[in-house]
Each structure stands twice: as C-alpha cells, then as structure tokens.
Amino acid sequence: MFTYSTPLIGGLIIGIAASAMLYFIGRIAGISGIVWSAISARADNSWRWLFISGLLAGPILYHALFNAPYPAASDLPWWQAAAGGLLVGIGTKLGSGCTSGHAVCGLGRLSLRSLLATVTFMTSGMVTVYVIRHLLGGL
Amino acid sequence: MKPLVALLCGIIFGFGLAISGMTDTAKVLGFLDPFGHWVPDLAFTMSGAVFVTIISFRFILRRQSPVLVEDFNLPDNKSIDMRLLAGAAIFGVGWGVYGYCPGPAISALAYLDGKALVFVIAMVTGMAFTNTLSQT
C-alpha cells in the first residue's frame, strides 16, 4: 500500500469532520477555540464538551477497530510537555486559532489571516525543532 | 440534534487524527524537521484536510443557513496584526517543543499518557493567562 495512504486518509477524514460541523451546526471546528470556550463557561456549552469527548473517543475507536497499537509515549521530559503546552495555550489564544481553526478551516474559507497564521506557525515550529535538535543537540 | 452532531464530528475528527499519526509526537516532530530526518506524513494529512474543506466550504457557505441552527457562526476579524502573527509564532514554538497542537493533545488524553495530561493542563493555563492579560 502507498506509504502515505493513512496520513492522507486521516486528512480527508479530518476535512469531512470539519465540513460536517459547518454544514450542520454552522461552526468552525477550531479546537483551541472550542476548548477555551468550553472551560470559560460560555452559554450553550454542551455541544463543545461533547465534541471534546468525541476527540477522545475517536482514537480509541480507531485503535480498537484496526487493532493498531497506541503511538509510543514521548521520551521527552515532563518539563518539555509543560513548556510546549503553555506556549501552545498562549499562542493559540493570542493568535485566535491552531492547526484546525487556521489551517484546516481557515484555509478552507480562503481567509488571509489564517493563511498568514498557518505559514507563521509552520515556520516557527520548524525553526524550533531545528534549534532544539540540530543546534542544541536535542536538549 | 446539535449536541449529537457535535459528538459525532468530534469522534470522526479524533479518528482522523489517530489514523493520520497526528497523535504521535515523534511523527509530528519528524514532520517539523525538514533539515533532519524528515517524516513527510503530515504534509499529506494537512493537504488532504484542506483539499476537502476548500471544496466543501464553497458549497456549504453558499447556503442561507446551516442545517440544524439558524446562522453560521464564523470569525469576522479580518485584521492582520501583531497579535495574530506573534500568537501564531508562539504557538508554533510550543508545537515544536513537544509535538502536539491542541487537537492531538486532547485526543492523546485517551491514551492515558501522563505527559499528554500535563501538556493539556499547561495549555489551558496558558490560555487563561493570556485571556487575563488581554482583559487588563
């Protein structure tokens, strides 16, 4: 089978999920925004918590149905998980979106803001990995 | 109906993340490492997802309204400013530091991985911190 078939199929499925969200309930499937709104106690929140629950149920379903092993746990240290999470939280709140909101949905809407955000976070992500792996020797 | 659809969309989305390899930090970091041992998988995932939305959104947004609610609820901010670019840049750094963006981090909680939980708690803390700062 084509080596990249599962990443491609996964992408198509993600695109279908985002399309269904917009088609049925008129919402952008931007996960950082949905998570923040869910915990900052907006009105009409049950759909957000159910969407988040689905995000956890989906992988369980996939690994069970296809008998696929869970990905190996990261061997990066705990502090790196904490630092990464903190920066992702700050950045997505400040920049109003993440990979799902800006890349998957924003590009789908042909939003210039989302295009610039996507180019920016892809670039800074690659620069960060370059610095950590190739300049700092993996930390 | 709306909560049920949201649940189903979440399941499909999470399923897509898992099958694509986005919940595997090693793959994500490999994708972000074009000058090292590049793992191109996620380029296919991104392209696949955007390929679908760029076509489907055209048709969906031509409708008067979504199927189950009265109005589309879309971001209306059009300004290209430092807030957007600095935010995206900081987000990218965090993505590269550990290998999760928000969706896969939430999905990875299903693996009962302690570091995924640490990541998500730190992420929410970062959001709350930024929210507080920007209100003062």
Roughly what is the average pLDDT of chain B, rounded to an integer?
96
Mean pLDDT score of chain A, rounded? 95
Coarse shape of chain A: globular
Number of domains as seen in the coordinates of chain A: 1
Main sheet makeup of chain A? none
- First and last CA, distance of chain A: 36 Å
SSE succession of chain A: HHHHHH
Helical content band of chain B: 55-70%
What Rg of chain B, in angstroms, do the CA atoms define?
Answer: 17 Å
Helix content range of chain A: over 70%
Number of helices of chain A: 6
Distance linking N and C termini of chain B: 38 Å
**Percent range for β-strand residues of chain B:** under 5%
Kindly estimate the percentage of residues of chain A that lie in beta strands according to DSSP.
under 5%
What does this structure look like?
The complex is a heterodimer of chains A (139) and B (136). Chain A has 139 residues and is mainly alpha-helical. Chain A has one domain (5-135). Helices cover 73% and strands 0% of the residues of chain A. Chain A is built from six helices and no strands. In chain A, helix 2 (31-39) crosses helix 3 and helix 5 (99-108) packs across helix 6. The radius of gyration of chain A is 17 Å and the shape is globular. Chain A starts with a helix and ends with a helix. The model of chain A has no long low-confidence stretch (mean pLDDT 95). Chain B is mainly alpha-helical. Chain B has one domain (2-135). Chains A and B meet through helix 1, helix 2, helix 3, helix 4 and helix 5 of A and helix 1, helix 2, helix 3, helix 4 and helix 5 of B.
